[in-house]
Amino acid sequence: MTALLSTYTALAGKLDRADWVLPTVARFLFAAILMVYFLNSGLTKLGEGVSGLWTPSVGAYAQIFPRVLEAAGYDTDALSFFHKIVVLAGTWAEFALPVMIVLGLLTRLAAVGMIGFVVVQSLTDIYGHSATDAVGGWFDRFPDAIIMDQRALWIFLLLVLVIKGAGPLSFDRAFAPKAG
């Protein structure tokens, strides 16, 4: 039994020193599972042509401010400057933040931004789109609720990056000052 415990302790010690594994795997899983989701979602918000970067589609407003857009008769010109800025910022964030995370560029900041994005996305789904059937609940024996279950795991993945950073294969590490 002592030999087994010693082997376990030695392996656990090696894992404790493998600080690069968790952030590297977290960034890989973000790229494999969530990056294309967010990039495609961002594409649905762009208007026509190159100017679409500054003139979001009606769908962008419908996704972010569904009730406000409906109250305005689906006329985006009737919405305020605030609404346009929020939609533009959300659209640009949906492109920039995932790319920054995958590249490991300002990873902690990008992960905090993505956590905020996921929280706002979830609240918009619940209150703006009335997606109460997708909320689910924790400790309910069903692991597939879109909001409570899936997005909690997304946030956990992003929290790993906030706490651990990007890992060794990143721009963050390449640009970090060398310890002297």
TrEMBL record:
Tell me how this protein sits in the membrane.
Answer: Multi-pass membrane protein
Name a GO CC annotation attached to this entry. Answer: membrane
Which subcellular locations apply to this protein? Membrane
For this UniProt record, give its keywords in alphabetical order, as a comma-separated list: Membrane, Transmembrane, Transmembrane helix
UniProt xrefs under Pfam families = DoxX
TM annotation in the entry: 20-39, 95-120, 152-171
Record keyword Transmembrane present: yes
Q: What is its main location?
A: membrane
The molecule here is called: DoxX family protein
Q: Which organism is it from?
A: Sulfitobacter geojensis
